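Design a sequence for this backbone.
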């Protein structure tokens, strides 16, 4: 009989796309486990602000390896996505954006928990985010679907790229705002916007749809891509509130159904990564508008 490991090896050998995704999952799981172990072994100290990061004592610090390693991984994934998009390998480009999102979510937390934050790390993280979540998604959408639209195509890509830069600049300037509710982001976070566009490309590629396809003789997919690109850019610079998850305590006890939900989420993502990830990002992108509508309805009733 053929063992399970041999069957898996044969399957991965003849399915390169599955091999790439399997390797990406292993890489993300490995980095997450290492990061959680580091966080578990360290006690969080006073919460750093950008003002503290720019103080002379922290400016004199060296360049720390651990947090900047995650930032470099995110930057590499973003650059890799650009290269693969230029080579028309859009599935690999989309997967690279999601990997960059995971790495970006880890670098700041690791730096704060290990007390290795620095002015260099803060600036390096912002530049990495601009490449991975600003330039890379805009270029992927342009090469994949927006290029045939001519000026309207590259204008939409530029709008997204400029909005990502403005979103990052606004985020950096409001880190010290004591009146801001830390439970919510102001505007759609740039990693979520990038994942929304990457998920759209990945789902389309999975079903054999290109940016030049037309459905029902009317619906042109390139205009769908154009609309989604402008929507993501506008959501980033809006005043809508998006849940940040910063109030979640990883060391606190949780009910059993929370662990069950996490397990089910892993199962669903493993079963159909493109559809599930794109659905999650789409729901999150629309959640800001839902929160806005609820607040308007509440204010009218009161």
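Sequence:
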């Amino acid at each position: 009989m053929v063992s399970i490991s041999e069957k898996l090896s044969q399957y991965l050998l003849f399915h390169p796309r599955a091999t790439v995704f399997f390797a990406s999952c292993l890489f993300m799981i490995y980095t997450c486990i290492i990061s959680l172990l580091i966080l578990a072994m360290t006690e969080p100290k006073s919460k750093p602000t950008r003002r503290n990061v720019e103080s002379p004592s922290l400016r004199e610090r060296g360049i720390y390896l651990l947090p900047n390693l995650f930032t470099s991984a995110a930057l590499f994934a973003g650059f890799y996505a650009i290269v693969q998009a230029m080579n028309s390998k859009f599935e690999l480009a989309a997967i690279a954006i999601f990997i960059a999102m995971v790495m970006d979510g880890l670098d700041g937390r690791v730096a704060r928990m290990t007390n290795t934050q620095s002015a260099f790390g803060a600036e390096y993280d912002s530049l990495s985010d601009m490449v991975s979540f600003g330039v890379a998604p805009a270029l992927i959408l342009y090469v994949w679907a927006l290029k045939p639209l001519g000026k309207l195509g590259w204008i939409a890509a530029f709008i997204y790229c400029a909005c990502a830069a403005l979103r990052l600049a606004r985020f950096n300037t409001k880190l010290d705002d004591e009146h801001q509710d830390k439970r919510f982001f102001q505007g759609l976070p740039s990693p979520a916007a990038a994942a929304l566009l990457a998920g759209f490309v990945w789902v389309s590629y999975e079903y054999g749809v290109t940016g030049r396809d037309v459905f029902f003789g009317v619906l042109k997919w390139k205009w769908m891509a154009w609309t989604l690109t402008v929507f993501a850019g506008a959501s980033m610079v809006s005043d809508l509130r998006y849940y940040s998850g910063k109030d979640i305590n990883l060391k606190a006890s949780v009910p059993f159904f929370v662990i069950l939900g996490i397990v089910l989420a892993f199962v669903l993502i493993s079963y159909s990564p493109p559809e599930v990830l794109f659905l999650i990002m789409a729901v999150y992108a629309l959640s800001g508008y839902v929160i806005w509508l609820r607040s308007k309805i509440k204010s009218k009733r009161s």
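The domain at 13-41+63-301 is CATH 1.20.120.1760 (Four Helix Bundle (Hemerythrin (Met), subunit A)).
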